[in-house]
Design brief:
This is thiosulfate sulfurtransferase. By secondary structure, this protein is an alpha/beta fold. Helices cover 26% and strands 13% of the residues.
Length: 277
Amino acid sequence: MTDYACPDTLVDTQWLADHLDDPNVRIVELAMGPDLLENAHIPGAVFWSIFPDLSQPDMSIQLDQETIENVLSRSGISPETTVVAYGSDIAIGGVVFWLLTLFGHENVKVLNGGHQKWTAESRPVTTEFSTFAPTRYQAKPLNSKLRVLQAEVETSLKEPDQVLLDVRTPEEYRGEIFIMKPPEGQERAGHIPGAVHVEHTDTVNDDGTFKSFNDLKHLYSQRGITPDKEVFPYCAIGGRSAFIWFVLTYLLGYPNVRNYDGSWNQWSRLPGMPTEP
């Protein structure tokens, strides 16, 4: 992991095993529901739900400062706590990293290999989540420099130094699926015109760990995603693109990456926004 631009943003399974009882470390499991990884939670983990903890009813990412403060407070997290994130999907750690960085939390780590590697190594698991004495967390104001809004994305379609990166599945990119299901009614499927497609899962090995620096660099540079450009990743609802924001920024060291968290959920519903099948 030492070849990455910021290797200290990752922890491996052995590091986490050595810190399971560290009071300054809080392990966060993020999933759709608490039973998704039933009977196989990492010891000491607290549970965060994608809905409703980190998402709004319209499926957009939760960016209300008070709501984020409440989630952190109930988890016994202070500004000094090191948060280690994992979930059932490889993108989960990057989602938590982006969101907490957005609100100024400086000590966030992604578990390299996630839950997949932890269980493959037969490391300890538990049937119960942990609870901790609540804190009174005060987040910093949202850092708008880590996200790009729809108006600028629209403008970027004519800018050669700005590139849109679609990180969804090929089926979503081709318009066969709309946010994980077949299009219905007036829903528009497809992708933003000119967007380069590199699926988010292409960044990891079979065991769930990240590919090497050189492999990641080749993956993106061969598609024209280079560090001299400003990169706007997007997906369906902003989660997988937050993960790729982490990969490009902290593993490859790209200086100008902003997550389009509105993503296809927003773009496709706005009248007049151009799309391609």
